[in-house]
Structure formats: C-alpha cells, structure tokens
Design brief:
By secondary structure, this protein is mainly beta. It has a single domain, classed as Immunoglobulin-like, CATH 2.60.40. Helix content is about 0%, strand content about 65%. The protein has a five-stranded mixed β-sheet, with no helix packed on it. A four-stranded antiparallel β-sheet has the order 2-1-4-7, with no helix packed on it. Strand 5 and strand 6 form a beta hairpin. The relative contact order is 0.26. The mean pLDDT is about 90.
C-alpha cells in the first residue's frame, strides 16, 4: 500500500462539494486564544487529500487519530477504515470533532497515522496548534460625566 499525502489541514470548518469533489477549508487553526480553560470548540476539522502511488492497486488499511496534550498525555480520538478501490486514484478524508474540549494552555499536537491491511504504519501527518491565554476584555468603561456649564442668572 502506498499513499502519498498531498494536502492536510486543521481548521474550524471544511466541506467537500458533492458534484466536483473539491475540498474547501475554512478558518485554518494555528493558535486558539482563550481567556480561560477549559473551553469547548464548537467544531474542529482535520482534512486530508491522498493520492495512490500505484494507481491500479486497491489500498486498504486504517487511519488512527491521537492527540498529545501539553502535559504529555496521549489520547486516542478514533480509528477509521481506509479503502481506495483500484479504479480510484485520489481520496479525501474529513474528520469532524464537535464540542472539542481544550483543558489547558500550551502546544497541542494531533498525530494521524495510517496503516496497511497488515497493521504496519505507512504514513503520518502532524498538526500542532497552541492554546494561548489572553486577558479578558470586558465592556469599555463609560465616559466620564460631562461637565455642566456654569449657571448664569
């Protein structure tokens, strides 16, 4: 099995046009700013575009998704089957995570690896992003009261 990764992204949104097969990616993520943690992202999306190196072979295997958090923990987020039939040259995969929790500040890393039918790793993609603490912004202070003009009699 030989797949070449042509494109990958971590974003807040993505869509694949059903008629053309075009992939659109929205709001690429490199840094997330938050006043506090934990927070939940409404949506987090990983998009991949593969091409077979041997066009006439069928490709089967699995994609494994892990995240490494700033405290050194590794969590498995999921596994997906991978199958590209012999007549198909390219393949796109979009993984969507709704309500994705971020529990600490620092650098996070998604690790996607793909394996062949025998379970041997054949490729990997890494996505790093930072969760950065920012000061809370509140309502602007009201303007000071206007001075009254002196009274005249």
């Amino acid at each position: 099995m030989s797949l070449k990764l042509n494109f990958s992204s971590l974003s807040l949104g993505a869509s694949v046009d059903q008629q053309t097969g075009n992939l659109s990616v929205f709001d690429v993520v490199e840094e997330i700013r938050a006043a506090r943690v934990p927070i939940q992202l409404q949506s987090l999306v990983i998009s991949l575009a593969f091409e077979k190196e041997n066009w006439d072979e069928e490709v089967t295997g699995k994609v494994h998704i892990h995240i490494l958090t700033p405290d050194g923990r590794q969590n498995t987020l999921g596994t997906s089957d991978l199958k590209v039939p012999p007549e198909q040259r390219r393949m796109k995969m979009v993984f969507r995570f709704g309500g994705f929790p971020l529990t600490e500040f620092g650098t996070h890393r998604f690790v996607l690896s793909w394996t062949n039918a025998e379970g041997n790793k054949t490729g990997e993609a890494l996505f790093d992003f930072d969760v950065v603490e920012v000061g809370q912004t509140g309502q602007p202070a009201p303007p000071p009261p206007a001075k009254k003009p002196p009274m005249t009699h």
